[in-house]
Design brief:
Chains A, B, C, D: It comes from Oceanobacillus kimchii. The structure is a homotetramer of 435-residue chains. Helix content of chain A is 34%, strand content 21%. With 435 residues, chain A is α/β, with parallel strands linked by helices. Chains A and B meet through helix 8, strand 8 and strand 9 of A and helix 8, strand 8 and strand 9 of B.
Chain lengths: 435, 435, 435, 435
């Protein structure tokens, strides 16, 4: 096994750097999806793209038409084939790839998220993607959460299955999910039914906790349930010098809401979070702003705590409208659930990795306080009696996730591929052939 | 005289509608400047454009290079000649046109502002520019303050001088000023020296007060001194779920500043104003916002009151940085002075308009509470011993200035042209020829 | 006349200092009322106290029962007679004193306000009341608005009428009004009917504008209409450490309301004001505050502007409740009207003061931007066809009104008495006797 | 043992109700201290009061002199002996009582807190103290945290030791601590040296968690480190109508601070808390408030988290001063440390209570998120090698601690006394006598 990984190493780095250079935001991953698909095609995977991959109507937080069209046009210019574009048009990105060995065995699903973030990547020469010239070519978009690595790991695992298909049993479903940021894509894939008959579900993330390369956490707890809200305030414009009194100030509504949202009382029963990640308001300096837009997110350690935050947030957002005599519109554009990994799976993972040259240590559990829409997939698998987990793969980070200088050690890639493939080998080995 | 106007009427309407359709923001009036210049060229005016028209370094609030380049490119596509563009490049828009009769007489300067506003024009069929198909072709830019009318009036007066040059004495200087909105262009023209030897300065606005068409105010009081500030907050980004405590929230700094700015105490000595006309902050929903940008404006009835507002505003803006542990940068990007019209000029204007068929009534004075950077020009003329005024030309307004549905009655255009030309005729008539 | 004043001078100083030492807040002027009454009794005035002086139900902003009882008890200890206290009990303070010469002539009403402010008087030796040992004996109560002087002037005028009764005609009504601060007492005296048949109404204030001693303004403009609101927020208490989420924070409602109230947009049609003069909230450090109390005041140059401010204030106060999920109660506890002095009265006053040794100069008009509930009395007199004015009497002020170091020059007292008495002499002289 | 308790029951109820009726705030527990002392004197305890009991200079958050004098005077009127008052004067309340059996054995220290809260007790007949007529006779002061019960338990245990002294060995130190609320008294007793040679330290609280009567938690975790701050803002007063611009608004500083304090970012490493428990500002409605006072508290799960909160709080409080151009003074008036109970003690307690008729169940540990200055005492004992714990005694609560209707079931009193005395018996039994 380790030999397989060893040979794969150079390819992993190349994939990673290619995807890193071409980051795309959620539901505009046209080129990314296409590239993943073209690689998988060569390995005999059956591909599902566009509305064959996800329940289009279950997506939330889709960019507006102008933006989608802009990126579809761009993808075309970048060489994405018309037939692919036609299927993905309207933000139906991401793909599902299946591989059936034809032999009875477990159905294993693996999920890898593929979208990037609206961050302007550092060009400082101390930032390795910059000094090694694979940093983002797209202004204000960056793989600052490691999803370029996730795609790469997925491809590495997919290639393993393809190359070892004779030794394997059962079925494999790869979910290359769009729009994880904002919790917008997982539910749409889940609703398409991919998780209904899955025996084992595996997903993971690189580098969230202080774990060095070679360390793996078999499960995580602490992923927060979350709700994402878009808010629009509508007021009245007027000349700020001549008629300040006829204006209805939407900018101030957004400002009041922002300040008060962070003051939602802490809760004695657990962790909560709130953020106003974007605010845009007003048109010109001497005009009372008649419009404002905010992107808000709340989280809670449990569904109840998330509901507590959501209710307070909505009341505050509405009060900030009446405070300045404006009107307000709240749209829910994303959500994640809390996540409970199957603890039964821990020992399997530990056992599978025992002889690995890459995985030095598997800890049972770690905790984080982010949010993950893989939760929808996991909960679906658990509901149908399967087992599921979300793993963490250690890497030193000089800068936190979502930072313009975020980068990870590429040595984590073979560690993760080795973990996944050893688990698969242990679960779905074709015992006779092995004999 | 009135006959001259009568014949001009159709041309006024055509000019107005053309300029209305192609609104351009301050310091990007490339096409507008070009079109004004090409018309004036035909009437033997001497033209000064680019750095010949204004002191380039005295401009404030210049758009950034990308924006300028974008609009220069667009102007080129719209047919502006290379030789013109070369001179205007970098936002050196606007022009000065002079006409010297060669006969001794007063030097009269006339100022017309030419820029538009960042407003999305109404397309409702009750909005005449929409129903008559001359509304803005540029999204999010609109002549919502009547400067399209001002340009038109200037051209009407310029044509009169050209056609009546044999009956006139003295010199005429037309200042087609860029970037009045935000108080950014007048100082740069003033510093170029155009106002140093001027005997009479005339400027004006259409439609600010409830005066119907035919009513003219010979002077205005109440224009406020003003200061325009751009503010940038710099904080730290971090993952809002995983590390809320390491973020330094620039969005909240802007929100706190906004709310507290409107609370600057009213002043017992006169009118003050404050507005935060734009606020942009943050990059993504789950990232603590590390950057925020605000456009702020304060005003005061006197220089002292404006200083009072500016000092409070700066203290509040800085305090909002320390409140959230961010850093802040304040740039002054525009200003206007208070304005004192020469009352000595009132009776001249009344006398000049006595026999007009267009001007029904001239009132001595009205008051407004906007701001005007023509104040820099006026104060310069007054300083050198000249006389100066700023007039208002009545028109019914269904919507206030700076409103997406702003429109004026085109009947005001001949009224204004008639007022200006009658004043000129009275001031600079070639008495012998008249004999 | 001036001789009369000359002899009175020492008495004026004594009265002023006595009243200064015993300041009492609105509707608790038990001792003050008693002392004024005991002096007037000796001069044959007919006195009306308690419910004979004012329409008890028309008072607003009455202190609560505990406070009234406390001060009634204190007044008793200070020697106020039982028979007086019985009439005044429940905050029915102030008195009306009438003098009828029995001869036909004008009915002149004069109003003097008698209440003090909740301010802790300075004990610094540069403060004359402190260095001359007549500063307030009541902690946190102070005559910081000059009403001690007003009472004194009223008594000086009253004594003049008593001593010169044989030379005078007509009737005189002295209104020693309680609770001017907060605009709480005038309406109650007005509703009692005292102003219905008045020919001339005179009131005044010492020292509001930069006028030195000897200067008198015959009329004032600019007094603002005003509304005074008391606000109570009711939330839920909870342990701030153990159950922060079950609290409903009334303190934060009051804080949000305060900050937003000052941000009510300035109005283009004239002066507006807003103040939160008091805020009390919470019971203990580690308890989420379940109660908050605010004293708010808005003003406007006209009734319409005051209504504009009142409506915005109420909306903001209510929004601040929903913002923090509390409930709120708004009570209107005082108000004043705008004030229009009779300009017809100006020349009379100028003429009357022509020969005064005290009044050096009478100007026609000055403007201030405070509020005065004498406006209710004036407007009542005007409504019935009488004439009315509110005068200002100049004095140098080292500190503004309502400041802990406020003090006026006692030389203003004879100036004011001389102005009032000369007006009276001119209006109501018994011409035959004068002959 | 249980028989002892059975006989004591009526006395416990009487004591509890007496102390409940006479609640006193921290450092004014003159009558409470005296009453405790007089009871202990009868049982041969050696008493230490005033500066013999605590390090007077180590107290924080002492009421001002006027308040202390007021309550000392009141205590005198209530019959506290002069000799006692002299020692306690200046807020040196609380007492230490020691009992030495003269026989070698462990030194056991027991701490009971004695102060009440600034809460107006409910008089509703559904509130048992009201219906049974033992509610607070002191307006706005109430035993709403069960310290009346704590005193009672302490007395019950003290009486047991006195009555069973022949069967016991070692030494006993009872710390009846003042001013636990606000974390103000424990450090002063600790610094006096009482905890230096203690082998076992026991303290406890009634009713914090959902545990019914008979349930006892042997240890608690989760008590938060905390810092208590008093804040004063100093501005400038001015007349809100006439000179709003010369005021410097201290009320607004406090309001801005309050709103922003609750918005201190949540911390990923653990629980934090913040509260502004009191705010008082301003003097009169039409005066710009020149003074404001706030009582603030922050908490953190660890010392580091508490420091994080304290630093942010101070920066915000200071920024709110510059925001409104006022000055500010921050005083630290109390603090608590985090608390780590000795887990080694758990089994001892479980064993000791095994045969109790009162204690039905002992759980090892529970968690709360309040703060306790007993932490200073515990940490001192631990530092010197002793063992220490803080127990919880279950009781149903219809209302939370610090609520005007807070009440506990008196049945918890014998449970707690039985727990303490059984532990003592087990630890310090005179084995020979027992023989």
């Amino acid at each position: 096994m380790s030999k397989y990984i060893h040979n794969l190493n150079q390819e992993l780095t190349q994939w990673r750097r290619m995807f890193h250079s071409y980051p795309e935001l959620g539901f505009t991953e046209y080129l990314t999806t296409y590239r993943i698909g073209k690689i998988l095609e060569e390995w005999d995977y059956t591909l599902f793209i566009g509305k064959d991959a996800l329940d289009s109507d279950a997506r939330v937080g889709i960019p507006n038409k102008d933006i989608l069209t802009h990126f579809e046009q761009k993808a075309k210019e970048q060489g994405v084939e018309e037939s692919w574009l036609r299927k993905m048009t309207g933000g139906n990105t991401g793909l599902v790839a299946t591989f059936d060995t034809g032999r009875p065995g477990k159905h294993i699903a693996l999920r890898f998220d593929i979208d990037a973030l609206p961050i302007n990547e550092s060009t400082h020469q101390s930032h390795i993607p910059a000094s090694k010239a694979f940093n983002s070519i797209n202004p204000r978009v960056m793989h600052a959460c490691g999803h370029d690595g996730h795609i790469t790991i997925g491809l590495g695992v997919a290639k393993y299955i393809y190359e070892h298909q004779n030794q394997l049993v059962g079925k494999f479903t790869f979910l290359f999910q769009p729009a994880e940021e904002g919790g917008r894509g997982a539910l749409a894939m889940t609703k398409k039914g991919w998780l209904a008959n899955v025996d084992r579900f595996y997903a993971g993330h690189i580098g969230i906790k202080e774990m060095s390369v070679g360390n793996v956490a078999a499960t995580v707890k602490g992923f927060l349930a979350s709700t994402k809200l878009n808010v629009r305030y509508h007021g009245n414009a007027s000349h700020a010098g001549m008629n300040p009194e006829t204006g209805k100030n939407a900018l101030l509504s957004a400002a009041s809401a922002s300040i008060h949202l962070y003051g939602i009382p802490r809760h004695s029963e657990g962790t909560t979070r709130v953020n106003v990640g974007r605010l845009e308001a007003g048109s010109g300096r001497n005009i009372i702003p008649d419009a404002a837009y905010m992107e808000v997110e709340v989280r809670g350690e449990t569904k109840e705590l998330n509901n507590y935050m959501t209710e307070h947030a909505k009341r505050i957002i509405n009060s900030a409208a009446t405070m300045h005599d404006t009107e307000c519109e709240i749209t829910t554009v994303g959500s994640t659930e809390e996540m409970d990994c199957s603890s039964s799976i821990i020992n399997n993972i530990k056992h599978a990795c025992k002889k690995s040259n890459y995985v030095k240590n598997v800890i049972s559990e770690t905790s984080v306080s982010g949010s993950e829409d893989a939760s929808y997939m996991m909960n679906e698998v658990l509901k149908h009696g399967g087992e599921a987990t979300y793993m963490l793969f250690g890497t030193k980070l000089d800068y936190p996730h979502h930072h313009p200088s975020f980068d990870f050690q590429e040595e984590v890639l073979p560690v993760a591929v080795d973990t996944f493939t050893r688990i698969i080998e242990q679960e779905n080995i074709y015992s006779i052939g092995e004999g």
